[in-house]
Every structure is written in structure tokens, then in C-alpha cells.
Amino acid sequence: MIDIVLTDDHPVVRAGVRAVVETEPDMRVVRECATTAELLRWVAGGGRADVVLLDLRFGEAQRGGVDATRDLVAAGGPPVLILTTYDTDGDILAAVEAGATGYLLKDAPTDELTAAIRAAAAGEPALGPTVQRRLLTRLRRPDTSLTRREIDVLRLVGEGGSNDAIAARLSLSRATVKSHLAHIYNKLGVQSRTAALSAARQRGIL
Amino acid sequence: MIDIVLTDDHPVVRAGVRAVVETEPDMRVVRECATTAELLRWVAGGGRADVVLLDLRFGEAQRGGVDATRDLVAAGGPPVLILTTYDTDGDILAAVEAGATGYLLKDAPTDELTAAIRAAAAGEPALGPTVQRRLLTRLRRPDTSLTRREIDVLRLVGEGGSNDAIAARLSLSRATVKSHLAHIYNKLGVQSRTAALSAARQRGIL
DNA sequence: ACCGCCCTCCACCTTTCGGCTGATGGGGGC
DNA sequence: GCCCCCATCAGCCGAAAGGTGGAGGGCGGT
């Protein structure tokens, strides 16, 4: 019997996963949590399970699921299977780097979900088809990656800052900001800040 | 008995809503659809229901739910209750303008969902609390709204186009594009195209 | 008929941005 | 030890964008 902890801030999704799981004879939901804090408390309090089903974003908290995953893995908890609607490169990579065993999108058919749960419970990786495709295309084009500093700059560009403003915010000279931007333009194959933003968003950076 | 048609591309969400609905004695799901096309075919083929539960976005199609709502309302179909994860001004307004009877977020508790279904089935408006708050704040600040043309321009700015490129794409003179942008900056209280993009995204335009 | 809003366009000027060609120092790999 | 990448900075130039101050036509409301 596979014991599952279900953590999602959407009651409807929790009910859905529970309904799907209950049609399988070899798995059951032993606990539902609406927040990552509740999940972590439950685990810390001695809760045991074979797999944690976890959403990535909770309300306004964009990285709640990633942080919780890191905590669970660090504490030697059960394998984590991410179940979310977001399929950008950044989300997927962040989850995998945090130690997630699997990554599934909410639009996956139910048999894919149960298969992923069985795989995750056995400690095997369980990546949805869409997720696998994204990872592969990223591997085929590794030059898209920006350095930490470049991402810092690009993020501030996305908030509407001028080169001067960005320089001030990062305690740099304007020349350095321009230099970073020039590198960004080169890597993304564009020639303006707005085009860079567009390209970066399209590729899941930011 | 309230007959419900359930339209969502997420199998898990469909299972969840079905599970919630089946705990209520006075309502039932008479049909599940994974796409708006399937829903429209079913209705055109004589399918009858008291309320349509509809997601807004289907896969890559951003406005699938809005278009379907328009079609259903135009055809005199059953009231439409939007059930979605997206809570930006633009999404909500588009749905309401298309004729949706209600708008609920997927993170709503289950009793809110059943209450909204009953209201929608009776033809009464059914807006979730978060949605109501958004509409009120928008009413308090109506000056945030951009004209059609301004949104056209801003969208192309978001794709990284220069003023010249935008002018060419919209068959305008560069002066007109600059004029639209000047108005946009004024309305949003910014002074650069990237800052305008940032502000527009934050307020759910685009 | 008038007013207001939207869309279109023009000219002039200042600021900013992007392209180019550099330079320096630190860290990691071979 | 050497080389490459990253991060930092500089100056110069042309192009683009933003600010100002207009103008005219269309359309809807009062």
C-alpha cells in the first residue's frame, strides 16, 4: 500500500487527486495539507508516507513548493512528486535541483498520474512527457543559459529600470550594466532590452 | 436537481469537481468535456444542463474559455460559471464581458464552489471574494484602462519591437506610435517602455 | 452645436540605449 | 603556469527613445 501526502492550496485539486487515488487499490491518501507549512509540521511531527504530492506555488508565494522540497529532501523525508500547472524551464529546473523525484503537470491524464505516483514511491524518477521534452530541448541548446549576474540585470530590466537605475540598485557602474546587457543580447540573439525580455520569458528564464 | 456540464482540460480538476459535486444531494455532473469544442458540440447536439462549469485557458489557447462563453450566451445556452486559476483583471473582465454568470478561483473552498453553482444555476451572479475585490479596486481606479490601440501598441512593445517595427506592423507612422506610448506612460505613471510593460503586467493588462 | 475622447500625424530637442573597442582582476580547469 | 570565463569598468559614436507642444478628423453624448 502506497501512502500519499497531498499538499495543494486548491481544495478542488485535492479532491480530484483523492478521487483518482481512491480508484487504485494499492494507494491511499493519508493526509491532506493546504500549505507547505502544514506539510512540514506534519512530517516533523512524525507523519510517515511513501510519497509527497506537492504543488509548486501557493497563493502569492511563487517558490513555496521548491523550498518545501529542499527541506524535505534535506531531512531525508519521502520522495517528492511535484504536481503543478506551471511548465516553464525555470520552474522545472528549480524543482529538480531542489531534489524533486518527479514533475507532473496537472493536465496529465489520470493513468499518468498513478504511474508517476508508483514510480516516485519506488524512488524512481517520474517526469511527465511535456517536462521531458522541455528538459531535452534545453539540453540541445545549452547556450541559452545566462550567468547569475546577467539574470540579476535582466530581472531589473523587467521591472522597468534604466541602466542607471539598475547600476544603482546593484551598486555597479553604468558601464558594467551595459556590458552585461551586451552579453545578454548576444546570447539571446536580440538587440534591445524589450526583445531580450520577450526572448527570456519565452524560454522560461525569469 | 442541478445538472452540471464540466469543461476543463485537467483530468484531476474534473475528478475533483465531480467528487465535490457528488457529495451534494441536489446536483450532479451530467457530462465532462476536455475541450471547449467538445462542450459546444455537446450543446449543439441537444445536450441540456442547468449550469456550465468552464475553465478559461485550455493548453496553449489563452482565450478558449472566453470564446466558448460568448458562443454559449449568444446561443441562449445555460448560465456559465468560470472556474479557473487566473485572477488578473484582464481575465475576469473578459469573462464577464463575454457573458459569464459567475467567476470562481480554483483555490476557493468547496462550499464556496457549491454555493456558486447553486447561484449560477438560478441565473444569479456568482463572483468569488477575490474576484469581487479585484472588480472593486478597478472601479475605484478606472484610469488604468488603456484604449484598444494603446493595448495593440503595448503588446508589440512586449514582443520586443522598436517604434519603427511597431509602426510598420500596425501600418502607422512612427509619430503615432510614439504618441500612443506617451499616453500609455502618462496613464501608467512611468517613463519607459519596459517600465510600462512591468506596470501593465502587474495590473493584469496584457 | 459643442465638447471630449480617440486616433492619426508632425517637428525639435534631450536623454538614453546599443555597438564597438578596449582594459583589469579573480577563479577554475587542464 | 596558462587560458578561459566571469565580473567589473572606460570612452566614443550613431541610433533610438522620450519630452514638449502642437494639429486635424471622426465619433458619441448632451
UniProtKB/TrEMBL annotation, chains A, B:
Please state every residue range assigned to the domain named Response regulatory: 3-121
What keywords are annotated for this sequence in UniProt?
DNA-binding, Phosphoprotein, Transcription, Transcription regulation
Positions carrying 4-aspartylphosphate: D55
Any Pfam family matching the protein? GerE
Ranges for domain HTH luxR-type: 139-204
UniProt key word NAD? no
Q: Reply yes or no: does the keyword Transcription apply.
A: yes
| Superkingdom per UniProt | Bacteria
Q: What InterPro entries does its record include?
A: CheY-like_superfamily, NreC/VraR/RcsB-like_REC, Sig_transdc_resp-reg_C-effctor, Sig_transdc_resp-reg_receiver, Tscrpt_reg_LuxR_C, WalR-like
Instruction: Name the PANTHER family for this protein.
Output: TRANSCRIPTIONAL REGULATORY PROTEIN NARL-RELATED, TWO-COMPONENT RESPONSE REGULATOR
Q: What is the designated name of this protein?
A: Response regulator transcription factor
Give the species this sequence originates from.
Pseudonocardia spirodelae
